[in-house]
Amino acid sequence: MHTNTNLKITAPPKKRLSTQLHNLSIPFIEDYATALKSTDHILDAIFGFSFSGNVRAPFDSVIEAIKNSSLPVTSVDVPSSWDIETGPPEDGPGKGFMPDTLVSMMVPKPLIKYFTGRHFLGGRFLPPGLEEKHGLKLRDKYDGIDQVTELTN
């Protein structure tokens, strides 16, 4: 692997992803309940920001297991089961799910008003013209050439 970390992946495998995982010697685990017992941190990157609708199997039980775990959770861009505008679901899978950390990609999403943990912004790839057009002033948030910065309320 490229780093000194111990990763395990649990998700329905895709052909190319499976090849990448194999080439990096990262094991694929189909039993996420067992995986939760042998890890010390969860990286939640199940869905992207374009997710909408109800969470269905097998992801409903995965999200519930993550929510009910005592492990720290870091969500990427949008916590799984959350709506980009309205935040956490009011019922169903993911109700009450609040990750410890959120890493927003490119720009914070409207759901941030519902989030209570540590918030980071990752990726300095928003063109200056768009940043200025939307009055974001995100360049001022980063130190030097850092690609990630912690945002405070």
Walk me through the structure.
With 153 residues, this protein is of the alpha/beta class. It folds into two domains: 6-39, no CATH class; 42-151, YjeF N-terminal domain (Rossmann fold), CATH 3.40.50.10260. 20% of the residues lie in helices and 14% in strands. The chain is built from four helices and five strands, in the order H-H-E-H-E-E-E-H-E. The protein has helices at 15-23, 32-37, 59-68, 128-133; strands at 42-44, 73-76, 101-105, 118-122, 148-151. The protein is globular. The mean pLDDT is 86.
Quick recap of the structure?
GO terms for molecular function: metal ion binding; NAD(P)HX epimerase activity; nucleotide binding. The protein contains 4 helices and 5 strands.
Write the layout of secondary structure elements.
Elements: H1 15-23, H2 32-37, E1 42-44, H3 59-68, E2 73-76, E3 101-105, E4 118-122, H4 128-133, E5 148-151
Parallel strand pairs: 1-2, 2-3, 3-4
Antiparallel strand pairs: 4-5
